[in-house]
Amino acid sequence: MNSVNIPSQLLPAFYSPSKLSECAGNPLIEALPPFRTAMEILPFFSRKPDFAMDERELPAAARILCISRLNNYLLTMPNHADVLEQLGLVIHSGYVHRNPILPEYKRSLVHFYRESMAGKIQPIAAAGPSTAPSFSLFGVSGIGKSTVLEHALSFYPSALTHSEHGFMQLVWLKVDCPLDGSLKQLLISIVSKIDATLGTAHSKHVNDRTTVDKLIVDVAKIAAQHHLGVLVIDEIQHLLASSGVGTQKMLNFFVTFANEVKVPFVISGTPKAKKFLGTLFREARRLSDHGSTTWDRMKPGAEWNFFLESLWKYQWLKKASDLDPKLSEAMYYQTQGITALVVRLFQLVQHRAIRGKIEQITVGLINKVAKEKFALLELPLAALRSGNQERIDKLEDFLTAGITELLLTRSEEQAHSAKKTEAAMNIERALLTSNLLLAGQDPKLVGAAVNKLFSSDGIRGGALSTLVKDSRSEKVANKLLDILKDAEVSGTDVSAAFKKAGLIADVSEGAT
């Protein structure tokens, strides 16, 4: 028998009877975590990295890796509350009139399936609201829209299997619009993601569709078949910017999901997308009946101070500094209150401080790193500083592209920096081991002593105490220990300190 790989995100459904009459007996709702208000969720919404003060004494490579913990940093902010609550409402209320164990719903689902096979679109159920609940979220790139939506969705299972009822439930699905703005490619990616989540094989049946209209019907059919709770479409501006996607096809897509198969959707994009969709939604009337939310970048004041002060304590520098008004002003000037840029600049400045052995954040360092690393963002950031909305609108695409490029290279750059620093440490470790042996130290003790030296405890823990006590050359060992301690305090390279003292041979210059 062939083995079946069940996707890890497909969980068995458990049920909790609903106290609401309209939800009672509906497995799609009773298998979900209970609806929570924003005030109930917010205390558990932050995503903060592990941090300990003594980590500031770790070797450089380890501290650079620690800084990468901020990649997933998320601080709960007041504007998150509305999105959290709206998302829960959309998922739960969207299922109220979609009970798959009711005979009339089953009949309407079969009817829709048969009609859709013939290329027609028929409503799944006659009863209930005329459209599924949906909402939209807009704001400049980098302010955390995608991060907040993804984290809010994580409070719900993505997919459930109802073995006693014989169906699978796709609670939520989040897709990013393709960069080329192709509606067809977006629809294909929706089906591919459904297959990856549920372990199905719908893609092989829809990839050959020649027209977008037929593909829309196929995707709607599949979404209805698996009881999709909400479809989240991110980076919608890519789709709207494509010259090949007409308003009518866009309207057909949204109407089919919201009005015909009753699948709620959430869309997220930039301010430019909001302008286009405002017109589109007026044509479709109630397609965004749960409203539209717009997030702006942080402005100097209480919100900015709260965010930066909360972030500032995550310094893995030996000379970690307190946040003062000049540092705050420099950080704001270089990031203009865009969340992703603030966190990224904070990381990059720490990288530079460690690599340059400065070990502290200064205004000069902030400005220098920003000038080098934010070069692609120079024009859009200047537009934001000017406050000229016309300039800002014209450079919106440059801002989006620059931030995307910056974040895409983040993981690669950090991995390279850590690897490079670690390689340098390994060279230093090898040189130190060789030089200690040349200085007459006991070969049995050198390895353990060097490992201890490069550990988190380092010299502070008495790394060479055993070596000093048991060495055949105690006088030399004591002098080595003094030099090592001085190098630790001053931040001097230990191998260079040994060479300067004339106690060791320089193996890099031919010693064997």
Would you give an account of this structure?
The chain has 512 residues and is an alpha/beta fold. The chain folds into three domains: 220 residues, Rossmann fold, CATH 3.40.50.300; 112 residues; 85 residues, no CATH class. The protein is 53% helix and 7% strand. The protein has 24 helices and eight strands. The strands form two sheets. Strands 5-6-7-2-8 form a five-stranded parallel sheet, with helices on both faces. A three-stranded mixed sheet has the order 1-3-4, covered by helices on one side. Helix 5 runs antiparallel to helix 9 and helix 14 runs parallel beside helix 16. The longest helix is centred in the last third of the chain and has 29 residues. The radius of gyration is 29 Å and the shape is globular. The N and C termini lie far apart (62 Å). The C terminus is likely disordered.
